[in-house]
Amino acid sequence: MDEVLQVAGVRHRYGAHVALDGVDLAVRAGECVALLGPNGAGKTTLIGLATGLLRVQDGRVAVGGEDPQRPATRRRLGVVQQDMGFPRTERVGELVRGAAVRAGRPAAAAAPVLAEVGITDLA
């Protein structure tokens, strides 16, 4: 299987605090991965690097073989943090339609995406 995420020798600091120290990780297409650890272990930092929200300070991060800082790569990525603050009554379809509109697309563009991932019943 192809690797969709490659992390090699990644180090990241916030001032004197070392968030990541030589992290290596490979995620293959179709794998389900959980990042577990205590507060401050670097989980959010790693996600930030993988999604291009943070710049790699040392090491290499690639998504589908591409630099996640590239705009073309970032357009293909999405992330939902642990707590996004959405109302519990909001439906998945409303969220996806809202994301389409914010991206400059018509709300109807959400329908094929919902169908592709098999969640039209949640819309």
TrEMBL record:
Residues 20-121 form the ABC transporter domain. GO terms for biological process: response to antibiotic. The keyword Transport applies. InterPro entries: ABC_transporter-like_ATP-bd, ABC_transporter_ATP-binding, P-loop_NTPase. It is a peripheral membrane protein. The keyword Nucleotide-binding applies. Gene3D superfamilies: P-loop containing nucleotide triphosphate hydrolases. GO terms for molecular function: ATP binding; ATP hydrolysis activity. It is found in: Cell membrane. Keywords: Antibiotic resistance, ATP-binding, Nucleotide-binding, Transport. Its main location: membrane. One of its GO terms (cellular component) is plasma membrane. PANTHER family: ABC TRANSPORTER ATP-BINDING PROTEIN (PTHR42711). This is ABC transporter domain-containing protein. It comes from uncultured Pseudonocardia sp. The lineage of its organism: Bacteria, Bacillati, Actinomycetota, Actinomycetes, Pseudonocardiales.
